[in-house]
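Sequence in, structure out.
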Amino acid sequence: MESGDLRIFQCVAQEGNLTKAASKLGYVQSNVTARIRHLEAEVGTKLFIRHNRGMTLSPAGEMLMTYADKIIGMLNDASKALRATSVPSGPLRIGSTQTAAAVRLPELFAEYYRQYPNVSLSLTTGNSQTLIDQVIGYELEGAFIGCACDHPEIASLDVFDEELFVVSSGVMPEDELTRKPILVYSMGCSYRQTLEEWLLSCGVNRPIIMEFGTLEAIISGVASGMGISLLPEIVIRQQMNSGMLRKHSLPAGMSRMMTRFITRKDAFVSSALGAFMAMLPRDYDMIESRDYSGV
């Protein structure tokens, strides 16, 4: 099984279409088709289910994809290590929850780019579980998440300790909070989980849930009286000062959330990633030990 075949297999799985995969890889479609058939013959089973909308992974294909992501990730890591220089440069892919991206990272990213202009810094946002999966799969060098992570392949560093509040419109009475819909991100969001746990403690088993894709949409919806949400005070300070929003305290044990920066334990720490981590707050100890000497 050759690494080139695995890269083609991975691309076809991601694109779900031979034509799109061939275009992305810069190959002719017949070559991609032949390599996939060769790989299926080599492993002795079908890796894709063909249908009129394209191709999806078979159960065997899903199993192989797990290994392919790791193998290709390690090969890419080895390539980075061999090309590494002491001066931070090249691509650096960072992930983050939307809330951290909106209020904590702009200043950090701006200062990083000012110091290291040769680094091509990119940011991907998503919920914590998705970001963990992307770090494990070598899709991201590191990510800011809003929950604890005890995965054996992940190292975690505490960076931002946030105080959380239930948030309502400025005119909503306190006794209406638990009767309103909750405005949240999709499943996998740590704030959503905490808010649902608080409502459950208040006797609300099945709150009305409205999912939004951006922090701005959630804040606007809450300000209009549509419902409530759970956010750090730093996110809503301006709206609170203007009277648009009001904060409501949570019980002890629910009122704080730690934002953590995670990386793979075995991943190569490039000079670009090392310089980035050196700029992170150092107020907290690492949850998982890892040698960041020189970072």
